[in-house]
Amino acid sequence: MSRISTAELSRYLLTGRFSRRGCLNSRLSRIAPVRQTSLSSQGRSLGTSAETATAAPPSATAAPITPLRKQLKEQAKALKASGKKKKKNKADNQTVPGWELTVGIEIHAQLNSARKLFSPAATSFNDKPNSHVALFDVAMPGSQPLFQPEVLIPAVRAALALNCAIQPISRFDRKHYFHWDQPAGYQITQYYHPFARDGRVVLHARDGIAPEDGDRVEIGIKQVQMEQDTAKTTAQPGDVHWLDFNRVGLPLIEIITLPQIHHPATAAALVRKVQMLLASVDACVSGMEAGGLRADVNVSVRRTDDAAAGGKLGTRTEIKNLSSFKAVEDAIIAERDRQIAVLEAGGVVEAETRGWSLGSTETRRLRGKEGEVDYRYMPDPDLGPVVIGDDLVAHLASSMGVLPDAEIDELVGRYGLSAKDALSLTTVDDGARVQYFYNVLDALEARLGLDKTGAASDQRHALLAANWCLHELGKLTELSSDLGMTPEGECNVPSAALAAILAHLHRREITAKVAKELLWDAFRGEVTADSVTQKIDADKLWFKELSEDEYAQLADQVVQGEDKVLGEFLRFKQGKAKAYPQGKLMFLVGKMMRAGTEQRMDPASAERVLRARIEDVYLPRLEGR
Ligand SMILES: Nc1ncnc2c1ncn2[C@@H]1O[C@H](COP(=O)(O)OP(=O)(O)OP(=O)(O)O)[C@@H](O)[C@H]1O
Ligand SMILES: [Mg+2]
Ligand SMILES: [Mg+2]
């Protein structure tokens, strides 16, 4: 299925205009145009919302943030820095003998919409504070909420990605509490009649779940509801707080899981996966680190005996506002251990709301847990029900594109990528890198004259393209500032230019070293798809490989005086050593590469010829002695 960006869909559904630019994953299939939608609230239908549709373009989608990539990088760095010991501790800390941990998570994600939930004010959080505020956003007397139907596009896509059943009718309630960041004294939310229910998220081992959960675990989603965000508070010295009402009223979804998570690593994996799913359908503005996604974790413990006897779950405490995957895992571990200590000392766990600060080792009490009574929920009399038509749901489902798990399976099954590389390719640049890979692959197949409709059994060119899109491009980002990757999968190294380089490499007309130099040239804009071949010609970079005989001569040259090394190969042949002495072979290949003309040698050919010479000539000679 084709994936179309949310902004693009909004334009189409609201105004009937649709441009093919921005159509993601277009390699996979083409979209069927929608004819009619029946999306309305309070009797307003989409066709009449011309005012909304022609207003300023979305600014939210332009946020230059790639939080997931950064978090993955930082996590990998931290893991590397902490060495194996940390990994072991983390794995060890997933269970406490005699106790069962239970976790349910509420995830708040900011929807990728151009307007606020109940006012046409723009959703921009990088602009001057308090510059996008409608009268209703600050609860001016007499102002009324005006539901912005376009928020349903990212909201429904998110719910579909979470396998939820979309509810044809949903309603808004007022949830009361007083705080300076909430001008009305209540938040408008959908607690009792959410727009989506009964979903599920499948987590695999590759998603980083606890080893105790095996290969795969499924977590139920109780419901997904729409609600308003609050104003942003910035603390200043002297107990002064600055408020930015640009954020108040931004459309959020709250995703509520069932209490089905039993290990801290699995909880973090769930949040990561939800973020990945939301990003893959373009439903969410930004990830955790940028504040676009926040998680509240609900934690309880009970004795395993009680669990086995089917007893009630323990009393839950809730840790609010966690803003990184690591914080989710660490806070759960700390809270689990605190509750167990309380119970083992004969105490009782109190239902309360607790806080967690980064780098901390314990949670701290903030207040008693608010209950439904405290919130004094009541239906919002100013808002009618939200009616979502089947045709809209069907259209959004058909235009979502391939979800990450299916994409990873395809990359592994069809092109032979490792699961780890496939996961990275689909997550870096918030999913744009894999689109770049498809663009490169299309251009490469065109250059190589391959028919992409046929199920070609040899996919080596695709694996080569994937490795370069991930690893070689990754090296560029490590050494230079930014690739400038767009959601459509284009960057400072145009896909056509990379394909031109890879076509020569695949045909063994240049070496990998030359290809890497050309990649830098393309990055600096010094070569284009059309000038790659010219440049190779001008700089005499063509790879004129040595003949088999020339390789064999070099091999003979480097084994001179290496009887001791050859002895190791003999020991393996005679069954006296378990493992093939690959290290020794590579040592000799290194010698060959240094002895020959680099421009004319391929390490793989050198290895193949050398191995054959050792086996066919030198070992029989040694055996004959
Ligand atoms: N005993 C329990 N142990 C752990 N988690 C639980 C337990 N009981 C419920 N939960 C989880 O707590 C969460 C409750 O979220 P929900 O939004 O329904 O209520 P809330 O926390 O009172 O609301 P809010 O925090 O939005 O005001 C769910 O994720 C649920 O799975
Ligand atoms: Mg909640
Ligand atoms: Mg809660």
UniProtKB/TrEMBL annotation:
Allows the formation of correctly charged Gln-tRNA(Gln) through the transamidation of misacylated Glu-tRNA(Gln) in the mitochondria. The reaction takes place in the presence of glutamine and ATP through an activated gamma-phospho-Glu-tRNA(Gln). InterPro entries: Asn/Gln-tRNA_amidoTrfase_suB/E (IPR017959), Asn/Gln-tRNA_Trfase_suB/E_cat (IPR006075), Asn/Gln_amidotransferase (IPR018027), Asn/Gln_tRNA_amidoTrase-B-like (IPR003789), GatB (IPR004413), Gln-tRNA_amidoTrfase_suB_CS (IPR017958), Gln_synth/guanido_kin_cat_dom (IPR014746). Transmembrane segments: none annotated. Residues 35-47 have a biased composition (Polar residues). SUPFAM superfamilies: GatB/YqeY motif, Glutamine synthetase/guanido kinase. This is Glutamyl-tRNA(Gln) amidotransferase subunit B, mitochondrial. It catalyses: L-glutamyl-tRNA(Gln) + L-glutamine + ATP + H2O = L-glutaminyl-tRNA(Gln) + L-glutamate + ADP + phosphate + H(+). One of its GO terms (biological process) is glutaminyl-tRNAGln biosynthesis via transamidation. Its EC number is 6.3.5.-. It comes from Thermothelomyces thermophilus (strain ATCC 42464 / BCRC 31852 / DSM 1799) (Sporotrichum thermophile).
